[in-house]
Predict the 3D structure of the following.
Amino acid sequence: MSTALEEKTVLCASCDIACQLRAEVDRGRVVRVKAHPNPLLRDNICMKGIYAPKGFAHPDRLVHPLRRKGARGSGEWERVSWDDAMGEIAERLRAVVDEHGPEALAVSTSQWNTSTESGAGRRFLNHLGSPNWISGVALCAGNTAAVNRMVYGWFPFPDFTGTHCIVLFGHNPRRHSWTPIYNGIRKAQQRGAKLIVLDPRRSESAERADLWLPLRPGSDAAMCLGWLNVILREGLYDAEFVREWTVGFEAFADRVSEFPLERVAEITGCEAGRIAEAARLYATAGPSVIPWTPITDQQRNSTSAIRLHAALRAICGYLDVPGGELLNGFNPDVVPETAIEAHDRLPREQKDKQLGSDRHPVFTYRGTAPLAEPTKRVWGHEYANIVMGSYMANPSATFRAMADGVPYPVKAFIVLGNNALLSYANMKLIHRAMLNQDLIVVHEHMMTPTAQLADFVLPGDSWLERPHMMDGFGWSNVIRVSRKAMEPPGECRGVYEFWRDLAHRMGLGEAFPWRTVEELYTQRLRATGMDWETFARTYEIFLPKPAYRKYEQTGFATPSGRVELSSSILRDLGFDPLPYWREAPPADPRFPLELFMGVREDEFFQTGQRFIPELRARKPEPQCYLHPADAAEWRVSEGEWIDVETRAGRVRLQATLRDDMPKGLIRVPHGWWKPEAPQGEGELSGAWAHADAQICPDDDDFLDREQGIPHFKGVPAAIHKLEEARA
Amino acid sequence: MTKRNAPLSGKALDRFTRRTALMVGLAQRASRGEKGLVDRLVTRLLDRATRPRSPGDDFMRDEIVDAGIGFSADELENYSRGRGPGGNGPA
Ligand code: SF4
């Protein structure tokens, strides 16, 4: 007779969505991960979550601390104890800080998987005195959060449950990617909500859309200006809201008037009539949403485009109303992670040293400083590190400082749950930066290309092996609970333990009074009157009371207290206070095609999971998509290996012909390396052959001005058959 | 001129907020870790209310998810030691 297995509630961190799931435990091992039985969470699981137990049982998983023996990247390691590793790391970090100052330490995390750290990493950095924290969220949601805060003081959360219309700017949630968002969108469609999709490719979402606009890659800002032109000209906005709650409307309307539909049609490649139709649908359907999209995050005009999304939401009156875009704020009963990060401890002169804040300040301390007082006034805390995106150094500037010592040297690099070498633009620069370090520490599950260049590789625990209290990345105010479902294998440890141990060894122990992460959670929960264990037993999801139009009581958390259509912050930082459109540099005849980079495949999240046999079997090779007509023109056939080249470099990919692609555009998958390929300098497990970070340029032509993030959507490119490549 | 479908405000919004608060209360009960009788009843109610009307409406059905994929503890143990299919660690 079979007995029911013990079940634990867990939060999946195999991607950035954090589905609440159930783990079945047999003899101390998680043997199955399945959807949570709560009707509100039904079916929210994808293949990455399902195969996670297999991934975490991988025979090559790192389970002991390793210290580099040979030259950096030689692949020669020796096993050391945690105590020896941490002792030496602290000693070497101390030497770097003594010689170059605390700002000579940079930290890169993905915040997922090995790195759910409850603010501990920032807390360590802030007490040590370094402002140089970077993350992939600089290119993905974190930057969007920072830009949204400049417009109306928070990053809104779409209310799919009551919305009338959903607008996807290139975003394409699917059954196995961004699963709960896919679920929310399809449910809304079943209720009758309209779907507008703007995507150069006829994506799965485009197939289901009421309106599909195949815009040119990277032209989101121009498209929004076109929509606004229609909405303002035809009076389809919420005039009362605009009058009462916005500043800069007249100047904004003047800027919008520079973009008549004919001009927008020319820039975007879409028919003027269809652009107007979409704008009218959005503005008149009733409360509508433009959910966050990784596509708008990664464009030359990203700051303007994100601000224009924000402006659309505001002038149509969709902010903080049912079915619109909710400004949630913090959960009133739980100390937010941002408070644990202790940004107030970092002295002003150290904040001023944050790399990249001089040229590209939007998501740095400098750019967000004017929001401190308004954020305290409206949301009760000076700092609001929503999606970890509001107090970051600029990644490219950080790697330049690491590589060249300009404007000052960065000589120690700590990387947690993040394959940094493959996760930002300009891999050659990152590689050079890493070779110029006195100390690199990587906390990981697998020997990634980044780990291969480290001095110390520390084995990280997984989301099945630790407790977690999730506050929706500070974005939603719903608190969720994840229980430790099994013991970590070998000597794997969590990031909280890592930071606490390092803090104690560096003389910062007082900043980490909590011996375990559970003690920290108990501290954060004190207003509920429960300790972590009681809270986790009582609640799996802890929901605050609903409230709408809160701004009518508090105003918006901006310097003016209103929605800033013309940004006082950007003006004071020396930028155009109004959103604008910036053309691409003149065409280069060597690169007649365009690339759409950063594409997520269902099987993998970023650079992860390629070692899980069942997932890899579904997608064994890095494939780029191109239209059959382009393939014919370039004499490329299905399955053929080709080199894809930009002015930054080349990668080798397998051609896949797809008639849902527009002619002239190639889609390149993100984050490829091959865990089975030879490790160490030379191949770096296939990263030099396949990683798209090599072909992402990060020079000024390709950087958004205000944020300094690279343009990934529409990069000029060429393709080469292998015999040409070899010639 | 095209008419806008305006968002809720005033008394209608107050009524909606009260209704939503009730729904949140129910959702909270359905989300309790250790469920009492009322919690279980509420969960059942919510389950019924949120189930797709017909199998054709159930866009979340999926062969990988519905296969109930899992592993045995021994299989994972052997795999982690490099003895299972796909394992390449030390035997
Ligand atoms: S979408 Fe998949 S990988 Fe992401 S959190 Fe959900 S189950 Fe995990």
Observations:
- Chain B has two domains: 13-53, 62-91.
- Residues A 12, 14-15, 17-19, 45-46, 48-49, 179 surround iron/sulfur cluster (CB under 6 Å).
- Residues 10-30 of chain B form the longest helix (21 residues).
- Residues 87-91 of chain B have pLDDT under 50 and may be disordered.
